[in-house]
Design goal:
The complex is a heterodimer. Chain A contains eleven helices and two strands; from the N terminus they run ααααβααααβααα. Chain A is mainly alpha-helical. Chain A has one domain (about 5-290): ABC transporter involved in vitamin B12 uptake, BtuC, CATH 1.10.3470. In chain A, α2 (about 40-55) packs antiparallel against α3, α6 crosses α8 (about 185-210) and α9 (about 220-235) packs across α10 (about 245-265). The longest helix of chain A has about 30 residues, at about 5-35. The termini of chain A are far apart. In chain B, about 35% of the residues lie in helices and about 25% in strands. In chain B, α3 (about 100-105) runs parallel beside α5 and α5 (about 150-165) runs parallel beside α6. Chain B has one domain (about 1-10, about 25-95, about 150-260): 3-Layer(aba) Sandwich (Rossmann fold), CATH 3.40.50.300. Chain B has helices at about 45-55, 75-80, 100-105, 120-130, 150-165, 180-200, 210-215, 235, 240-250, 260, and strands at about 1-10, 20-30, 35-40, 60-65, 70, 80-85, 170-175, 200-205, 220-225, 225-230. Chain B is an alpha/beta fold. Classes of the chains: A mainly alpha, B alpha/beta. The interface between A and B is medium-sized, with 26 and 41 residues.
Chain lengths: ~300, ~260
């Protein structure tokens, strides 16, 4: 076990973590704000990359391609949203249906191939695993990913402070109250799902560039990694009293921590094929911690119960 | 202000659990009427409020609010006309949001929500003033999360939210039933204050017969999904709890009033 090998791998792990952190911010919108478990993201985490890479291969600019990826993700979110609200299918099942359907669509987008490579030498990519070391700092993937996260957090901070954004937050917090206050909760759920999947697909577009190819399996287990980032962010930074923007930042940092932990686990000699199992275990552990803490380490309630008035 | 024309609603039709919750219910309220509603469990009191609010559509009959037919209007559209306070203090507010954010949501009831600011500094000042009416000190805690408030505080806040924009109709579904007596009295006092100030047309369900007699200008008793007793004015003022119990036995065919009604 060579400690230098670990250190050399860390910048790359950070870059991947940041990109997955963007994806996790998308998951945060459904899981935390809307209180929905949306499994569509397992599909959109591939769709975005497929759209982005295919567009770039056809000669489109990287930003146009990323925008197209974002819009494709929104479309997938719209489908899930309609299945859930207009047709009354439980959110989890609606997401699974979209995800399954997306598999075929993703293949079609990628010209019926399981992956589509893009050469970092021939195309001007925004991020790449080759742009971690030995490039001018303004081309460095770590910096670009950080800038994108900062911009995204700024935009979302503004959006969730608007009337529409507040009504989405209210829908997740208390749907009955929201309807009583005149909020169309079907509409707010759809908007939230679209926004979430748009962000995930955007992250997918970045991730495909980073790896140098779009892959049909890119999204497998994506929801677990996204949730891992959200939950790790909450567990690690939850004690710090911060505003909404800080919460989003902690989600993104959760993604980085996840990838650093993963890197260490790999460095300890575990097989890369065991990654999914390790991912599932990491998420299970982090999900269990708050529950077990509350169950076994809570302070006893004072006699007479809580003061209600 | 409100016309309920012979509405009916049956739940779980065609199953063993079939329940005719409303049957040919008729009720007409004039502007400024404050009617209290009593009746045993399963009499259809809450079902009536849900029918008015549009939680689901009625099977038969029609509902008019201030002359507008709302029978087929979805819940969130009807909300433009209605202020609602629920029995469970957790139902009326968004726990993960701040006091001022909850008020701002209520202030936009019935309005189109777009990308304007969710709350402006001008509003904040107005809310501070409004919260003083409740006499709970909430005016100094605008940015406190609602989840940290007690049941009574949340219920008072919900009442304020329901009336922030003058509703055509205020629906109170046993809104003090889950509170301790002292807090309940305080919330009822605030209710009277606000209803009187804005001359609100109000329906208040209660299990407390004394409250039903002492509040409002009209009292109705429900049984098996419709109204069996309707009294107002001087006659209502003279009512006593034993009058009501007697009335209930008589109307329900000698069946004794259930224990929750006796509690009063």
């Amino acid at each position: 076990m060579n400690i230098m090998a670990l250190f050399n791998a860390l910048p790359g792990a950070c870059a991947q973590g940041l990109i997955w952190g963007i994806m996790a911010i998308g998951v945060f919108i459904t899981y935390w704000i809307l209180d929905l478990a949306d499994l569509t993201v397992d599909g959109t985490m591939c769709t975005g990359g497929a759209v982005c890479i295919m567009m770039m291969l056809s000669g489109y600019n990287v930003w146009v391609s990323l925008l197209a990826a974002f819009l494709a993700g929104m479309l997938a979110g719209l489908v899930t949203g309609l299945l859930h609200t207009a047709f009354g299918i439980p959110a989890i099942l609606a997401g699974i249906l979209s995800q399954l359907g997306l598999y075929s669509i993703n293949l079609r987008i990628m010209d019926n191939k399981a992956n589509q490579a893009i050469s970092v030498d021939k195309y001007s990519l925004l991020v790449s695993l080759r742009y971690i070391k030995g490039v001018p700092f303004y081309r460095n993937t770590l910096l670009i990913a950080l800038l994108i996260i900062a911009l995204l957090i700024g935009l979302l901070y503004w959006f969730f402070g608007t009337e529409l954004g507040c009504s989405i937050r209210a829908t997740g917090s208390n749907p009955n109250m929201s309807r009583a206050q005149g909020i169309n909760t079907d509409l707010t759920k759809i908007v939230g799902l679209m926004l979430s999947n748009g962000i995930v697909a955007f992250a997918s577009g970045l991730y495909a560039q980073y790896q140098g190819f779009a892959d049909i399996n890119a999204g497998r287990g994506a929801i677990v990694i996204g949730l891992a980032a959200v939950i790790i962010g909450q567990v690690v930074f939850g004690r710090i009293h911060g505003n909404f923007a800080f919460k989003l930042l902690s989600v993104a940092m959760g993604g980085v921590i996840y990838y650093l932990v993963l890197q260490v686990v790999l460095w300890l000699g575990l097989n890369a094929n065991d990654l999914k199992l390790i991912s599932a275990m990491i998420v299970a552990i982090f999900l269990a911690i708050p529950y077990l803490k509350g169950k076994h380490f809570s302070k006893p309630v004072k006699k007479g119960g809580a003061n209600r008035a | 202000m409100l016309d309920i024309n012979r509405i009916s609603k049956t739940f779980n039709r065609g199953t063993v659990n079939e329940k005719r919750a409303l049957s040919g219910l008729d009720l007409h309220l004039a502007e400024g009427d404050f009617v209290t509603v009593i009746g045993g469990n399963g009499a259809g009191k809450s079902t009536m409020l849900n029918a008015i609010a549009g939680t689901w559509f009625v099977d038969e009959g029609s509902l008019l609010i201030d002359g507008t037919d709302v029978t087929r209007l979805p819940e969130h559209r009807r909300a433009a006309y209605l202020g609602r306070v629920f029995q469970d203090p957790m139902t009326g507010t968004a726990a993960s949001m701040q006091i001022e954010e909850n008020l701002a949501l209520a202030a936009r009831r019935g309005k189109h929500r777009n990308l304007r600011k969710g709350i402006t500094s001008k509003e904040r000042e107005a809310y501070r003033e409004q919260l003083k009416i409740l006499e709970l000190g909430l005016e100094d805690r605008l940015t406190t999360g609602v989840g940290l408030l007690s049941g009574g505080q949340r219920q008072a806040l919900t009442l304020l939210m329901a009336t922030l924009q003058k509703p055509k109709l205020l629906l109170l579904d046993e809104h003090t039933a889950a509170l301790d007596p002292k807090t309940a009295a305080k919330v009822l006092e605030a209710t009277d204050k606000i209803v009187g100030r804005d001359n609100l047309t109000t329906i208040m369900i209660t299990h407390n017969m004394k409250d039903a007699i002492h509040h409002g200008n009209r009292l109705v008793m429900m049984h098996e999904g419709h109204i069996i007793y309707d009294v107002s004015g001087e006659e209502k003022r003279k009512l006593t709890v034993s009058d009501l119990l007697h009335k209930f036995e008589e109307a329900s065919g000698g069946e004794f009033a259930n224990d929750r009604m006796m509690l009063a």
